Amino acid sequence: MEAIIERCAGLDVHQESVVACAICGSLDRRPTITVAAYGTTTAELLALVDWLEALEITHVAMESTGVYWKPVWNLLEGHGFTLILANAQRIKNVPGRKTDMKDAEWIARLLRSGLIESSFVPPTDVRDLRDLTRYRKKLRQDATSEKNRIHKVLQNANIKLSSYMSDLFGVSGRAILTSLIGGEVITETALELLVHGRLRSKLPSLVEALNGRLRRHHRDMIRFSWDHLCFLEQQIVTVEREIESHLQAYREKVDLLSTLPGVKPTAAAAILAEIGPDVKQFPSAGQLASWAGVSPGVYQSAGKVKRVRTLPGNAMLKATLCECAWAASMSRDTRLSACYWRLVKRMGKKKALIALAHTMLRIIYAMLRDNKSYEEFGPDFGTKKRLNHEDRMVKQLKALGYTVSKVA
Q1: For 45-86, where are the E strands, in sequence order?
Q2: Alpha helices, DSSP H only, in 247-313?
Q3: H-helix or E-strand containing 139?
Q4: Order of strands, sheet of 82-86, starting from the edge strand that comes earlier in the sequence
């Protein structure tokens, strides 16, 4: 392997230890290899920094091992090193004797030869925003789980409110649930004070739906889930305030992404937290799509193209894009909606959803790169392009002397 870096180091990171291998020397001579081991406490990691600085190391590479690489990265980040985070699957050593020292040396040798492709690590403020958006999504999932538990307990008690209420956790539903938890006897007269809007026309049906076998055990189970749900909803509000404060510097980018059909400000913040406000770290839209896991896989051998699934990619970004794609498919008179329903005819809804997410991510890449809002071309955008292609083919055939007629 040809060397291109004079002074570099590879780190084999574990939960309790870090093994470092430094390779120093001119590119045309045999280098000097130095190995050292440190702990993962702050004092030990600062000693590692001093050791690297004493050897005048310029480049440092490490594997993305769980979350153990993060404290090491955070301490090395502000000391002038060029940090490279490697995908562990792409730098596997050849089979043989495996030790921590050999792993660190292998990483250092690959780094010295420029054979390690760096993974995307956003700056600190974007990483903080990413933690908040991911935590908000987790809180919402937990809140949905608690709502489902309440639905389950009501069904066990033969309370059929969900048969007559589209949203059990709206204003009227919450008032009824509070009364049930308190052990009140809900009559039609009392129900008139609890429900609002069109539900007033369903009062007799609601009274009948409440005529179940609600025991104290059921009330206790509902109360446990209800208290947890209220706590989760308050936490969501608090986290959203934190997200808004972190988004002040990127408000223009969020407003830009929100012009895309299917992308609400909440989804725009999540997308921005995953890919960052500057997409220059991705050389092309295709590489960004591959990193997100929405790019079609390629598996060709002996001239045959075989079936292959998409890569996992960034799970959070992929899920957010699929949600946005589904919302965009429901929009009216848009290019994205028309694209989705054209794809559904030949590949089914699931594959069409991934394909639309791929298209939307390419559009997002262009919007952030050029700092331009989304421009709607209408539902006939793809059709016009196909017709133009047909017109060109007809002209070419006529130029060769063929007579072409279109069959209706």
Answers
A1: 59-63, 82-86
A2: 251-257, 265-275, 285-292
A3: helix 124-156
A4: 32-39, 17-24, 7-13, 59-63, 82-86
Half-sphere exposure of 124 (CA within 13 A, CB side): 7
Residues present in the chain in total: 408
Give the 3-state secondary structure of residue 21.
strand
Nearest-angstrom CA–CA distance, 311 and 278 = 23
The helix/strand count (H/E) of the chain reads as: 14, 7
CA dist 57 and 84 (Å) reads 13
8 A C-beta contact, residue 394 and residue 280: no
- Beta carbons within 10 angstroms of residue 90's beta carbon: 12
Residue 259 has phi, psi (to 5 degrees) of: -75, -15
Q: Which of 160, 155, 153, 190 is nearest to 175 (CA)?
A: 190
Q: Which residues contact 382 (CB under 8 A, 6 or more apart)?
A: 335, 338, 339, 342
**What does pTM read for this prediction?**
0.85
Per-residue pLDDT of the chain (408 residues; tens, 9 = 90+): 788 999 999 999 999 999 999 999 998 889 999 999 999 999 999 999 999 999 999 999 999 888 999 999 999 998 999 999 998 888 887 777 788 899 999 999 999 999 998 889 999 999 999 999 999 999 999 999 999 999 999 999 999 998 888 899 999 999 999 999 988 888 888 888 888 888 888 888 898 888 889 999 999 999 999 999 999 999 999 999 999 999 999 999 999 999 999 999 999 999 999 999 989 889 999 999 999 999 887 777 777 877 777 878 899 999 999 999 999 999 888 899 999 998 998 889 999 999 999 999 999 999 999 999 998 887 777 665 666 777 788 888 888 888 888 775
Nearest to 64 by CA among 120, 138, 124, 115: 120
